[in-house]
Amino acid sequence: MNFQRGRTREEPEINLIPLIDVLMVILIFMMVTTTYSKYSELQINLPQATGEKVSSQDKQITVAVDASEHYAINSVATAFTNVDSLSQSLRKAAGDQKEPTVIINADAKAPHQSVINIMEAARLAGYNRVTFTTSHQ
Question: CA within 20 to 30 Å of 71's CA: 13, 36, 87, 99, which one?
Answer without folding.
Answer: 99
